[in-house]
Amino acid sequence: MPLLLALTGLVLAELSAERVQQLYGVQALRVYRDWQQLVLQLRRDSNEDNRVRDVNQFFNQKLKYVEDAELWRQADYWATPLESMAKGAGDCEDFALAKYFTLRELGVAPQKLRMIYVRARIGGPASPITQAHMVLAYYSTPTAEPLVLDNLISSIKPASQRGDLQPVFSFNADGIWVGAGAAPNSSVDRLTRWRQLIDKMKAEGFIN
């Protein structure tokens, strides 16, 4: 059953098992088939809250957290969802991006989803120790408080309950937001890592 969804000029497409295994081996194929099953199952469930919950849970369970320096021998690398499936691991950006593309494939409107770069306080809101981190935010309506999908914790919580996270900027395929404005401040094409990610996904055949 083909999985096709217009995505701001991009189209996600189902790959053959042979293509996935050829690219990344048996590990990727196994997780990819589980991903396909998840998508097909959630297509039968019109409840968007369930889709958000189950996609968050899927990647938090299927992937383990590994820093880019160890996993890719690079300081900063944005993996495609297939690359993350192949490794069975990723860092915070990889979790957020895999969830984003999966929810878009399930028909969640683009304006409801944004990757958010934050400064995360390690150990809680009062901790003086911070590090750069990325999460995925889901807005049920344009004015709703966003829910935070995070690889650091299993539960999805409203942003107001994540005092340990300080937003820096957010983005999706439509643009980049700095501050609380309703419209993006600039094009997402300014993010080199995003452009590289899309090029890799096209080369894989994961998007057309």
TrEMBL record:
Coiled-coil positions: none
Pfam families xref list: Peptidase_C93
Signal sequence segment: none
Record protein name field: Transglutaminase-like cysteine peptidase
